[in-house]
Every structure is written in structure tokens, then in C-alpha cells.
Fold this sequence. Notes:
The structure is a single chain. With 274 residues, the protein is α/β, with parallel strands linked by helices. The protein folds into two domains: 9-77, no CATH class; 99-270, Sandwich (Protocatechuate 3,4-Dioxygenase, subunit A). It contains five helices and 13 strands. α1 (9-16) packs antiparallel against α2.
Amino acid sequence: MRSVTKDNITEVFMGYLSDDTDPRMREIMGSLVKHLHGFAKEVGLTHEEWRAGIAFMEGCAGIESEDRHEFVLGSDVLGLSSVLGPFHVSGAPPLEVGGDMKRHYGGPILLAEGVIKSTDGTPIAGAEIDIWQTAPNGLYASQDEEQDTYSFHGLMTVGDDGRYAFTTVKPVEYTVPSDGPVGDILRACGRHPRRPSHLHYIVTAPGFKPLVTEVFPDDDPYLDQDTVFGVRNDLVMHYDERPAEAFPEGMALSGKVNEPFLHVAFDVTLAPED
Ligand code: BEZ
Ligand code: FE
């Protein structure tokens, strides 16, 4: 068709796809283009606004690097993706059950523990839990030259009882990077870049679907306004404060804690593989 207009462009686009286009590709491109054209028509997109959109994407590409994933961040703040986050460093060193991630860092001690189990409640022996969080300055190791590569990262393999346990510093709320194009969008929309404090977990075991998740304390002021929409009711946990004398045996810090500490019990359930 030669007389392409804004009224028939979507149809013309579809007509350009060859008959042997992969059906999934056809479905995705067809829907994408339909919504893209519909969006531009609905808002009456001006050339200047289109240019600003292109500049946004160019800006994201310009600062994209191994440690800075601006497109992922953009996708997260728009509510299209969430959970893993752009700061996970794979290959964390092993952390024994009861191990300590806090090390020399200041801040309240948090003892986190729980059982990794299947949907019928049976502990999953040998499950792996990959744990990560920010340092007390609100920065992940990958964002902060002052930290070791794997600080506040640990990979734990649980025993027959399925129990994981570790000490760390109480996670802090932090801001996602806002000095790039995504920060500009947040400000233009009157939004803040804050996330409620949380611990990240990736839990895996043979025969089960991997779980990528994060857990949040129930008293965090940003629980209802997470800039990347990661909070779910079943991911909210409660810290209780315990006296130093209540610190249990069997932990790397046993016998070394002489201040009140926070404790949280949070079990993790894995669904079987299909
Ligand atoms: C995070 O929790 O690490 C995160 C998630 C999405 C965007 C930025 C950070
Ligand atoms: Fe995070």
C-alpha cells in the first residue's frame, strides 16, 4: 500500500511482516506497534516530545555500563519489572549457616533465619540461598569503591533441616540512582527515588522453581511508596528486638554480641518445577 496515513499505518506495518515471521514475533511486534501508534495518537505526541523520548533512550544508552543498568532501572520505575534489581553480583563467596555478613560495619545487628521448604512444608535439604543487601551507606558493593567486591553478599547452602541463618547489619532504605535520565523522569513526575529497606534472596534447589525475592520490615516508612513497586504483603517481615543475652549459640557471632540485636524469622517456600 502506498497511501500510508496515520489512520492505516498500524495495518500497513502488519502487512509488511512476511508470512514466515515467527508467530510469537508477530504477536509481540503487532501488539507493540499497535500500542505505540495508539499511544502517540491518544496523547497527540508532538515532534518535540518524540525527540525528548529519543533523547531519554540515548541518555540511558550513554551511561549504560557493567555497573550501571539504566534501562533496567527505567523498566523498574515504570512498573514493568522488579525484584532482581541491577546490583546483584553473581559468584558470591560461600557463607556458612550462622555466618556473619556484618563484619566491621557499624549499625544494629540483625539475625535473620528461617526454613526453606516445599509447598507441603517439608524442608529442602541442600537448597541454596544467595543473599545480598546494601552497606549502611545505602550503596551496594557494585556501586561503591570503598567496599570489597562481595561485601554484603553471601551464598549459603542449607543442611537437612532446610534452615538458613546469618547475621548482618540492619538494612537501610536507600535511593536508586537518580543522577541519570531515569532520575530526570522521576523528578518530572514528582516522584522520589527511594526504596524501603530490604534483603534480597535468590533461592534455588534441584526440582524447584528458582525464587528471586526480597523481604521488607513492617515498620519501614517507604513500604507503601517503593519507587520500583517491589513490595508484596507476603514479603513483609517483623523485626523483634532481643537482649544481648538472648543471642543464640551456633552463630559466627555467638559470644561476641553485647548489645541488643534485632531478630527476624522468615520462611521461604519453593514451588516444584512444572
Ligand atoms: C534493588 O533493590 O537493588 C533495586 C531494584 C530495582 C532498581 C534499583 C535497585
Ligand atoms: Fe535492593
